[in-house]
Amino acid sequence: MSSSSLHILARLHRWRLHHLSERGFITILSIIVGVLAGVAAVIIKNTVWLTQRMVNSLVVSNEVVNYLYFALPVVGIFLAILVVKYVVRSEVRHGIPNVLHSISKRKGKVSNHNLYSSVITSSLTVGFGGSVGLEGPTVATGTAWGSWLARGFRLNYKNTILMLACACAGAMAAIFKAPIAAIVFAVEVIMIDLTVFSLVPLLLASASAVVTSYFFLGQDVLYPFEVIETFALEDLPYYILLGIASGFVSVYFTKMYMFFGEQFDKLKNNKIRLVVGGVGLGILIFLFPSLYGEGYEAINECLAGNVHYLFDNSIFYSFHEELWVALVLLAAVILLKIVATSLTFGAGGVGGIFAPTLFMGVNTGMLFAQLVNWTGIRHISTHNFALIGMAGLIAGVLHAPLTGIFLIADISGGYQLFVPLMITATFAYLIVRAFTPNSVYHIQLARRNELLTHDKDANVLQMMEVKKLIETDFEILSPEATLRDLTVAISRNHRNLFPVVEKDGTMVGMLKMDDVREMIFDHELYDKVKISELMYMPEYHIDPNDNMEVVANKFESSGRYNLAVIENGKYIGFISRAKAFTRYRKQIIDVSHV
């Protein structure tokens, strides 16, 4: 943030303190954040479109199309890596997990390079055919602007997080032109509490973002869909089965995504990561060109009931009239899309998983419908099941059934199919929850105990830092000290606890004032009784690396008012129940909306 920008924001900040209430200012700021998120979506969309146009002109003018599909994604990822290394000079994290981490551990602060870095790197990655989406980078860019404004106007924690949620909702509303689903997304995935205070800003941010998108990109829905066959009660069992199938595909998605992520984490050399990921991605796209890019055109073709996109520029084109080959290719692209996405990320590309989720969902629905129709048991609509398969995968992969329902209804105009959307999304969510308790967005944060949820008490405990609660103003005694030394310590210290510590810092015990109250009045014992005879080692102690939930449980289990903090046997200090509770009360006020 430049000094001139800081100066302008500082002047605006002083002006608004005198002329606007907090609620009024947040309302205005939410509209600004929504517009900025909308502009970010427009810039990313148009940048990718221009990049793809340039790339396609190269492909069309060349006779060896498939070989270019092999090479182009690697070129895009390589260029993105160069931008990160020499321009950004900082890690560009995946969009939505980065937002969640910023909320959980950085008090809503998003690095300034995200104001532009995700736009450039995702445009290169997707524009050259990387098998990822644009939603994550759009959210990352929008939230970076929200965080920038929040810091500039010195917003407190709760309003900073609200601005990030507004930016997330705005980004999703703009890129999908789905304002209601965007708000649901902010509640389900970003974990923002939908309170009276936050509702109006979220609505305004979402609305202003989608209007911005309309202004620059038109009002056409992202995935045009015409409901030809409405919901028939006889199809209910098949929508349930589709939900179950979507749930298992979602489990596969999550497991494969995490597996490849772990494997690439073991490769410390970026050149090796690029080669391994790039070559693997090139082979997949060479064999299955429909895996190329975010898959926007393929999804629309599938929704129209046309599966010829599976054969376009493919070595299997000569089989394009064979249904069994189409079914095999549908199964292949469903299973391999997440592999291609993971290889793109592993090689160093930047993007999102929303588009791959939609791609796998639409193909899952199409494959399911085609198989049912092939058996002759009943004829079901391939169009409807392809559409509703997307909701099933969103519900399963993202653990966001409401987002799946409203997003697919919003982006397709398919509200007449609301009931089957609900049924499929619900069953997919139930299945995936049985195998993976956290979504791909949340799973890594959950493993590090950094995930914030809708449980406000748990969130507040997680945000509290144990090391900031440690008190060190206790009189330390040596094991060789006598009762006389203890009385001297009592006279010059207001505490009633005395840690007993060796010269090397090892804690070997402690004394309580109540345990020696009568003895200190018997002067004959002063030089006879040693501290080592009176001390005891506490049953419970705290490690400075414990989280606050563990600390709270130890206080409850022990019934103590003070617990020693010991690290590798070394004495650090004490944490008092009173100080922890006071800090908890202050923290919950800071994060609560009124």
Polypeptide structure, described:
The chain starts with a helix and ends with a helix. Strand 3, helix 23 (548-558) and strand 4 (562-567) form a beta-alpha-beta unit. The protein has 24 helices and five strands. It has helices spanning 3-19, 22-60, 65-88, 95-105, 117-127, 135-152, 157-176, 179-188, 196-217, 236-265, 270-287, 296-303, 323-347, 354-375, 382-397, 401-412, 418-435, 443-447, 456-463, 483-491, 513-516, 531-534, 548-558, 577-591; strands spanning 497-501, 507-512, 541-542, 562-567, 570-576. Strands 3-4-5 form a three-stranded mixed sheet. A two-stranded antiparallel sheet has the order 1-2. With 594 residues, the protein is mostly helical. The longest helix has 39 residues, at 22-60. 63% of the residues lie in helices and 4% in strands. Helix 13 packs antiparallel against helix 14 and helix 15 packs parallel to helix 17.
Gyration radius, to the nearest Å? Answer: 29 Å
Kindly, what is the distance between the CA atoms of the first and last residues, rounded to a whole number of angstroms?
Answer: 31 Å
- How many H/I helices? 24
Percent helix, as a range, is 55-70%
Give the strand tally: 5
Mean pLDDT: 84
The sequence of SSEs as H and E is HHHHHHHHHHHHHHHHHHHHEEHHEHEEH
Q: Tell the overall outline.
A: elongated
The main pleated sheet reads as:
3 strands, mixed
What is the structural class?
A: mainly alpha
Strand order, sheet with most strands: 3-4-5
**Beta-sheet strand percentage?**
under 5%
